[in-house]
Amino acid sequence: MEAAKVINTKGNNIKDLNIKKDPSVTIGIPVLNEEEHIERVISGFLNSDYSNLLEIFVADGGSSDRTTEIVKNISKKDPRVQLLENPEKFQSFALNKMINAANGEIFLRADAHCEYGKDYIEKCVFNLHRDGVKNTGGAARFLATNLVQAGTAISVFSLLGNGGAKHYNPEYEGYSDTVPMGCFYTSDLKKLNGFTESNHTNEDSEINYRLRKNLDGKIYISPEIILQYYPRKSFTGLFKQYFKYGRGRYLTGSMHKGKIPFRSKAPFLFTGTMILLLLIDNLILPNVLGSFYILSACLLLLFFEAMRLAFAKRDYFCKAVWKSETKKPPMAAFVGLYSFVILIIMHFAHFSGYGYQMLRMKVFGKNGW
Length: 369
Known about the structure:
Helix content: 40-55%
Distance between the termini: 43 Å
Number of helices: 13
Largest sheet: 8 strands, mixed
Strand content: 15-25%
């Protein structure tokens, strides 16, 4: 990878990127029961055109399916693939084990339930060499094989679903406060002592905060870095995911004295306000605050936003999101309806997790997870 000239998106000036030819790369993949995806992901990286892929670590959190068997079989054919044990199960522990073992100059984090562009490694390494950048990646492009995933994929296009986060916009290029997965200098991760293990979710946002604060680093998103992600397949799985997100975001805010993006606490504040209005209007000042009408108006707004996006993004959904080989893309109205339900689940689950963690720490004095 030779020194190259690119456009500086912040100033529209041409500048040189001095990139050492193919710096060595370690890929780290934390897994738990990923037999459906792990061989495809590892093979994709092994078959890439990048010439200096040094090693691929897979840290397993105690899979009960064939995940470890598959990884061991691949390792026999290509010793660059190595299986590590992660008895603590959570991703932050797995990532730190892989960072400590990493020999590559660059550490690229990957997840098994994603799909990556053929030139994913090259594009990540290239963008990491931008001036001052300490982490880079691509926006999360959602894929779907059922209606729950379809509704989730549409929901994240709304401000009500993404909170203004730049890493949900596949067309965005520039700086951000965080990015999915990530491509780092291994030395930077070791300087920061890796990911925070007391926070079992939101570990990516937390380490990006420390990269920006402690190392004066920048986080860069490029639309040329293709990262596609399969969200949860069920309402229950989605609720559990966002409940954990809420807990993780409260922990991150507490750890850094509230210096996290407002979107991390917005669902808690909004949902909490609505619940408080309902309680006051029904138990203390009956029918004075008009909470029923306010809630109805909010739900109506949410419904129309979900439907608007489902129809506005119809072509994109059919071409880039829907991946079922046996089913035709569902009608936009059904996608919109599921998106409406999912937006409610996201907000209430986030509120519940955030509130649970707040009570746990503030009232019961239980620090950490």
